[in-house]
Design brief:
With 317 residues, the chain is of the alpha+beta class. Strands 1, 2, 3, 4, 5, 6, 9 and 10 form an eight-stranded mixed β-sheet that branches. The protein has a two-stranded antiparallel ribbon with strand order 7-8. α8 runs antiparallel to α12. The protein is globular, with a radius of gyration of 21 Å.
Length: 317
Amino acid sequence: MQVPDRLQTFTSETGQELTFGNFIRYHDYEPEVLLAKESWSEWKAKAQLAPIPVDPDLARLKKALIRAVFINGPREATLLRQVLTMLAAGQVSEALELAGSSAMLLYYRIWGDKAEKAGIASLADAFQRLAANPAVCADLDEILAWTLDTTEVAGAPELRYSVPLELHAQYGIREVQAVFGRANLESSGQTGVGVMHFAEQKTYALLVTFQKTEKEFSPSTMYADYPISRELLHWESQTNTAQHHTDGQNLIHHQERGYTILVFARGQKKRNNVTVPFTYLGPVDMVSFESERPIKMVWRLRYLMPVVMFEDNRRGG
């Protein structure tokens, strides 16, 4: 049975209201697979349950729907839903004000690239343009209602500064950089790096992929990163980072130097042809280090790693 047929018979078969969350739960769809071909509105149009969406930016914003599937921080999901409600009421400047310090994070969730690539003039323009895509906004709202309903994320780690990151919530490489001001309207930041130094916040973000494949990573980036336990993480620096380098010294002596080390981790890079975001594991403290280059380090997480992440990625697991 195909998706449109299942949509048509959904309410009579289940007695439930047809929502994105109810539908994927009942039929056990992987959301990014369902949304890879059509937007939620487009699927409903194919089932003749809704008009064919004519949103001007639909082609570009279909990717935003897939990104939204991974937004599992309740604060962020709730904020984005409030923003969508305001945009639907034509309150663009109020929506921007509400977004506050999360505005750039939300911008990258939605548009996914620097302003020039997305044809955007300003943050206000980005919000205004989103508002002009009502079917996408409605789809986003239903997807976020589902993520809020299913998330187990709660709370944010205490840091020396304020950032809109939630513990065990998921962020792509651009979203991480948006939070720290590295990705903005002019630049989408760095790509293909496993360590990011945010000098202004005296912070290093370590981006870890536990299961590496030869195809996705070159031999020089096949580092030995794995959880030893839910609390301890074995990590190797990039091959060109030596102990005596500035970064090496900052990482090793992070406590004395007042540096914050944050870890973002994922099991694999791709799932169903979609780039998987990183799960924010929060701040870590160094336990031990060895070898000159690359540096092999053991970090202690201040907050335990999720059980599933540990079980899926431990050595011999």
